[in-house]
Specification:
By secondary structure, the chain is an alpha+beta fold. The chain is 31% helix and 33% strand. The chain has five helices and seven strands, in the order βαααβββαβαββ. The radius of gyration is 15 Å and the shape is globular. The chain starts with a strand and ends with a strand. The relative contact order is 0.15.
Length: 153
């Protein structure tokens, strides 16, 4: 497991998030759509989720967003995970998932959920590598999503 520390996302981290977004073209297309980053972040203000910056050796390497109680099912959901391009495939995402999973398990939860557009195979493969399993498909605003679950047992 990669040794990571986390801290709350601050407005001063916007430049780092912009860097991550620019190195993730598909994320920008699917998530931002016609929004800029401040507009995208503003969408999440009404939810009780948490944006985190993950650091390795004091250097930011990832940004995540999760909810412990999503409005849809009152269960934990991973909303976003972006890893710095030159740090990918080095166990960072798996370490983050392990940490978040331990947090949710300690709170009595049985699973962590995530959703990806049905045609984003790289995303579903990435989540599978992080311990998620395919659960079901769901329609939302005319788009089909693959719902994935990571058991916390």
């Amino acid at each position: 497991m990669v040794n990571l520390a986390w801290r709350p996302f601050l407005s001063s981290d916007s430049g780092f998030l912009q860097e991550l977004a620019e190195s993730s073209r598909k994320w920008m297309e699917n998530e931002l759509k016609d929004l800029d980053l401040p507009g995208y972040l503003k969408q999440y203000e009404r939810l009780s989720g948490e944006w985190r910056v993950w650091e390795k050796g004091g250097i930011p390497v990832s940004v995540t967003y999760h909810l412990e109680y999503a409005p849809s099912n009152q269960k934990p959901w991973l909303g976003t995970i972006l890893v710095k391009a030159d740090e990918r495939r080095r166990g960072i995402a798996s370490s983050i998932m392990d940490r978040l999973s331990a947090k949710f398990k300690a709170s009595g939860h049985k699973a962590l959920f995530a959703a990806v557009p049905i045609d984003e195979y790289e995303w579903s493969n990435f989540l599978t590598d992080c311990g998620f399993e395919q659960f079901k498909t769901e329609e939302n605003e005319g788009e089909t999503f693959l719902i994935m679950v990571r058991p916390l047992g």
